[in-house]
Structures are given as structure tokens and as C-alpha cells.
Design goal:
Blueprint lengths: L1 E5 L9 H13 L6 E8 L3 E3 L2 E5 L15 H11 L3 E4 L4 H13 L3 E4 L4 H9 L4 H12 L4 E4 L2 H9 L5 E3 L17 H6 L6 E6 L8 H11 L3 E6 L11 E4 L5 H10 L2 E4 L8 H8 L4 E4 L4 H4 L5 E4 L4 H14 L1 H15 L2 H16 L10
Parallel strand pairs: 1-2, 1-5, 2-4, 5-6, 6-7, 7-8, 9-10, 9-12, 10-11, 12-13, 13-14
Antiparallel strand pairs: 3-4
Length: 370
Amino acid sequence: MHIADITMFYAPASGGVRTYLDAKHRRLGRTPGVRHSLLIPGASPQHANGIYQVPAPALPFGNGYRFPLRLAPWRNVLEELQPDLIEVGDPYLTAWAALDARRQRDVPVIGFYHSDLPLLVSNRMGNWFTPNVEAYVSKLYGNFDRVLTPSLVMANKLRRLGIGNVHVQRLGVDLTTFHPQHRDLALRRQLHIADSTHLLVFAGRGSREKNLPVLLDCMQHLGRHYHLLLVGSHMPGYVPVNVTVINHFCPPHEVARLLASADALVHAGDQETFGLVILEAMASAIPVVAVAAGAFEEILDQRFGRLCPPNDGPAMARAVREVFEEGATQLGWQARRHVEQRYSWDSVVNGLLTHYRAVLGHELPVRAHA
């Protein structure tokens, strides 16, 4: 059985979509009877190990992302590959290329709705465009044979737009890459903080929807016995004295070391469609303090950390103190056990195969857990 994924959301500094596709490609590659191809944008046409680069121009200041402008190259690669099923990972030109392939070859197409497009557009251009963007999303995703979303909050948004056949498919975490064994006791010395100081961390892009000013306000309320490490590109330049910034993209193994070496993750974003970094922190056996918004309420509860009101630095500071008063270490180990049971990538791929089997109308193999 040949499954093809197609997306423009794939770049050297990509976030959750690339993490999902890479994990899926590795595991499907070890699944008997299944072939997996991945179509991504590149500078020139080339392929290796089942990954096909389709020419697309680079986005200016786009951190390595490329934006396809021509339908034909993508459609031609799909025609050459002749997959039995296509999964679409973005709502742009590649999605229409997949639908063209369906018309030509009668191949089913699944759309995975990773990003909240109307919200992204309204954040950058205002609410004037929201009705048009919602109509576009409704038209596009109404054409797919099945629609997957990473969270219930996203599924409900699509259902309110009149899109049927929507199913929740959670994402996962690499339990080996993100593991408490990567804790580095030297990190505190590098940051020049005492062993008794509570080390907090946030890892991700410093985009507006991450609400980093809330984290900085939280740190001002927490004071000198707490220290925050901000990790990722586009971080603020002016921060309180109890905040350290690593202002560049870090590869997964480095993020894993920093997470395992911290005492808790803090996240003030209120528009997350899933929140992979929360799972990565939990897999690293540290608790999480996040806002009660977006998909976070579906992942996090008081067994693993705290949820607090959005856009409220003092409330987040109180939640952080509660975590350490209750016992951050115990909450962290409970979080690790939880993700081991529910969020391994093997479990995610088995869930995907169930969706593929339903769309194709016949049996597919189920991966044994590694």
C-alpha cells in the first residue's frame, strides 16, 4: 500500500508538522506492506529515501520555507508515484494538486488541518478577511474524503464551518529523544544560577501568538528565586534579569537537553492547535504551566502541572508557585508515565492506519509497538 504526504510546511527550522511527518515517515518505512512517500518543497527536483523535493521559490525572511506557485510540478510527481492514498498537510496549492490527482486517478485524499488558517489571517490582517478565509477553508476541506485535526477544539471549528467527516487524530512525542536521562547538571552553571533556583523554560518561535510578554510579566512577579530560559528564534531583546535568551533555532536533541535540565515548562500561547512542546516537556519528566485555552485543556491537567487564565502574568506566577509547592518532581514523573501510555508515535501511526483503512475500504497492517 502506497501512501503519499504532500505539504509546503517543511523547512529546516519547521515545527510540529515536520516533526509529525518525519516520525510518520520513519515508522511507515518499517511497516510491512506499506510504502510512504513525502513530497516537500525544495530548490531543485531530487529524491532520496522516499522524500521527493519539488521546486518552489524561497519565501523572503521565511526561515527556509518555500511557497509553491505552480500546480503542475506537484501534480506530475503524484502522477509518477501513483499512490493509493494522499494526505495533505497544508491548505495551499499542494492541497489543490492532491485534489487534481484524485480527479485523474480516483485516489482518496485526506486533509490534515494542522493550522487554524482563519485565526492566522485575522492575527496578521484583521477580521475583515475572516469570512472569506472561512469560506475558502470550508470549500477546500469539504472536498476531502476525510479530515483529521490534532485536537477537539480544531475539529469543532471545522464542524461549525459545515465540514463533515472530521476526526481527531492526536500527535505524539519521541520518547527516546525527549527523556529525563538527557538532564545536564552543567546547565545551571552555564546560566550562572544557584542549584536552589527554580529553572523554567519555554521553547518555540517568538511569534506574537506565543504571548511572550505574559511570560516576562510572570517572571517579574516570581522574582530572583526563579529563572526562565527562552529558547527559539525571534525572542525579545529586552528581558528581566531573571530571564536568559537563546535567540536561535535549536535542533531537537538540544531542546531535549534543555527541557530535561529544567524544572518546569511555561507556555502563555492561547491559540495552539495542539502544542507538541508540552508533550516534549512531559516526556522529559517536567511539569507544565500553560494557559487554559486552545488545545492545552485537552492535554494538561493537575496531575501534570497547572492551567491558568490567559494573558495574566500574575495568575501564571501563582500557578508556577503551586507546582513547586505540590512537588514538581512528582508531577513531572506522572507526566512522563502519561505520555508513555498515550502519546508514543507508534500509537499515532496505528491510529493513522485506522483512518487510512476506513477511507480505502480494506485492511492495512497495524504496527507493533517498538
